[in-house]
Specification:
D-Amino Acid Oxidase, Chain A, domain 2, 8-stranded mixed beta sheet, 9-stranded mixed beta sheet, globular, alpha+beta, FAD/NAD-bd_sf, 488 residues, 34% helix, oxidoreductase activity
Length: 488
């Protein structure tokens, strides 16, 4: 495992796909690098990910309406172009024989959900595909061999995107570990508890075991645990960085009753504050069935019964006979979500300390791009070629991709969509009354949180008192920073 007391050029905190990819890129550039993280990865998003190489399949109408949303799409698009060479290099540097397990993605539009979410998402995906001139094909849902839903969940339309694949995340993480070691990097099975600061710069990290790792540069890629490591910053600086909360996701590894699995990803558009229902082949009769999303202040390691019910109920949208299959494993991961919903990439303002996190659902897919970008920044390079990602610098005003009215409308729409996805059965005249209740409640939340800044809509649906307090503190810090001292 290497000597954790040794000095290295860079220590990367976090051993998910993002941190490991950066560690490998740095090791390939002949730097002495150590990646620190518990080998079991109990909270990591990567270990529980379906790992879709999703670019266009993740597009939503909201994403296309803002400049920063389109920048995120551009990052996804460029990351897609890197994956073939990235996978090939990993295969050559490790003992893995395959990392991708799905070839192509089929997006289905079925009778579940809400028109403005599902149909709107389906059309947004097609719009983005055409704008980027990416090949796709509208297909007859009845021609999809593996798909066999119950009649009430039948797909109305389907499109096949041949350039969107998926990755076996355990194989990817194993390949990254092997490649880093073979390049001379060090993997430390431990938990970082503190960033060490000396003479005004980060000089290493302290571990839960009591040992320390000295380094010239420290990169925090610790996902949903990142914010807790920022106590090393002056309070007024730390307050300007969006806190990172956890998007806890639950997924299931299912063994099909017949052993049949699809050749590629089958998914719905993003819906109900999550990435939509999706199935990813994992080989040997196993499929990955995902995934839920619950935004919480702290990472979690348990699955709620309601989340399991949602996933198991979703099998009717895919294959009726999945009900006779077996759940072999429940997967739980925590996606890192900054309070404004966008990644944290760059310097913290403290010399030698960098952030590389907050990627929400895009981290694994974007990891080759982000690793190259951050390695360039650390080595005084230009960052990702041809892309200005300075909007994602950690110390920034809150990014607002929606207006107040758009946030409110989206929160109400997806809240109602959640109910329909759960197949609720209520009197026909109740939904308008319930919708009006949520509109009133979310309006009150928006007014309470801030009169100017607008959070992502999921912060209204999921936010408890802890997250509300984080939002209030974060917004207040920026309002104070923008107000001259004599006017406060």
């Amino acid at each position: 495992m290497g000597d954790p007391s040794a000095t290295c050029d860079v220590v990367v905190v976090g051993n998910g796909s993002v941190g490991m990819s950066l560690g490998l890129v740095l090791a390939r550039r002949s730097l002495r690098v150590a990646v620190v993280g518990e080998s079991a990865r109990p909270w990591a998003a990567s270990a529980a990910a379906g790992a879709m190489n999703g670019c266009f399949g993740e597009v939503t109408p909201q994403l296309l309406r803002s400049e920063v949303g389109r920048l995120k799409l551009e990052m996804d698009f460029r990351a897609t172009a890197l994956w073939t060479d990235w996978e090939q290099a990993l295969l050559e540097e490790s003992d893995e024989t395959a990392i991708r397990t799905a070839h192509g993605t089929t997006v289905i539009l079925n009778t579940i959900g809400v028109h403005d979410i599902d149909t709107g998402g389906y059309e947004a995906i097609r719009t983005a595909l055409e704008e980027y001139k990416e090949p796709y094909e509208e297909v007859d849902p009845a021609s999809l061999d593996w798909l066999d839903p119950v009649p009430t969940s039948r797909p109305l339309r389907a499109m096949h995107i041949p350039g969107e694949h998926a990755v076996d995340s355990p194989a990817l993480l194993t390949a990254l570990e092997t490649a880093i070691r073979r390049r001379g990097g060090t993997l430390i099975d431990d938990l970082v508890t503190e960033v060490v600061v000396s003479a005004g710069r980060a000089t290493g990290v302290r571990l839960a075991s009591g040992r320390s790792v000295a380094a010239g540069q420290v990169v925090l890629a610790a996902g949903a645990h990142t914010t807790g490591l920022l106590d090393c910053l002056p309070p007024d600086v730390r307050a300007l960085i969006p806190p990172v909360v956890a998007g806890r996701g639950v997924a299931l590894m299912v063994r099909t009753v017949t052993g049949a699995i699809p050749t590629g990803v089958i998914r719905t558009p993003n819906r109900a504050f999550a990435c939509g229902l999706h199935v990813v082949p994992r080989g040997d009769g196993l499929i990955y069935l995902g995934a839920t999303n619950e935004v919480e202040r702290h990472p979690g390691t348990s699955a709620a019964i309601g989340e399991l019910n949602l996933l198991l109920g979703g099998t009717r949208q895919l294959r009726a006979d999945l009900n006779a299959g077996w759940v072999e494993r429940t997967l739980i991961g925590n996606r890192p979500i900054p309070l404004d919903g966008f990644p944290l990439l760059g310097s913290t303002g403290l010399a030698g300390l960098w952030l590389m996190t907050g990627t929400y659902r895009d981290g694994l897919h974007q990891s080759p791009l982000l690793a190259t970008h951050m390695a360039d920044l650390i080595l005084d390079g230009p960052g990702a070629v041809g892309m200005d990602l300075s909007v994602f610098t950690p110390i920034r005003p809150p990014i607002q991709a929606m207006t107040r009215d758009e946030c409110l409308a989206t929160a109400v729409l997806h809240t109602m969509g959640t109910a329909y996805e759960h197949d609720w059965k209520i009197m026909e005249d109740w939904p308008p009354m319930i919708e009006e209740h949520f509109r009133s409640a979310f309006t009150t939340m928006l007014d309470r949180i801030d009169s100017a800044f607008v959070p992502p809509p999921e912060m209204l649906f999921f936010a408890d008192e802890d997250i509300h307090e984080l939002l209030l503190s974060y917004y207040a810090a920026h309002e104070n920073a923008a107000t001259p001292a004599e006017d406060r």
